Amino acid sequence: MTRLSDRHIKPARLALAAAALIALVVMLSDLNPSQADAWPSVQPVSVRANIPRPAIKQHHIPFGKKRKHEMAAYSKRHYGKSEWRLTNPKVIVIHYAVVATLSGIFNTFRTDQPDAELGELPNVCSHFAVDGKGRIQQFVPLSIRCRHTVGLNDRSIGIEHTGFSDHQVLSDKDQMHSSIKLTKWLRCKYDISIKNVIGHNESLSSPFHHEKVKRLRRQTHGDFKHKSMQKYRKQLRAAGQC
Prior knowledge:
The protein is α/β, with parallel strands linked by helices. The protein has helices spanning 6-29, 33-37, 65-79, 102-110, 166-170, 173-189, 226-238; strands at residues 57-58, 91-94, 128-130, 136-138, 156-161, 197-199. The longest helix is centred in the first third of the chain and has 24 residues, at 6-29.
């Protein structure tokens, strides 16, 4: 038996494919309108709504190799894995800073020294801050972990607000307008549900909370208690779905 070479096989395959295509075209042309309507159609793939990014001024704190190494070491101690990158965040944590200005928050975060509360490195930080005029600043890229909430730093985004109480922030129309816009954009960007937009004081009840250091497993702060966050999440729902 003579074996065909590849150069003989390929033209033969092309000829068969062409014949099959011609036959299909002829078959479709013979369909009456009712039969043609029954032919399966390709459905468009649904696309998540494009939520506009609010105006954000970039004002990054120094976060070089040394601070990243410290963040990785912190993560190893507290979460069991050495890593400084923030990937696939699941929670957005709302804070107030007990500081009146964005520059005051920036200056608190920029120096890499042991934090005043726990005495650990790297120094604390949050990704964003919103002031009383509705201005938003970003201090750290979203690809980097910040120390802002014990038990959640490896899977959360932190948003600070200038001010000294939940009530002060919630009653400031301009600040809240920008805060809701920022939070909606972030939660839609990362597919974070409204119930996982929490106040710092709610951290222990988050299903994503985990902490390896025993003495810190009940560690939280007083800012944005559950009652306050019920009001915040109500405004977030009113802003619409993604």
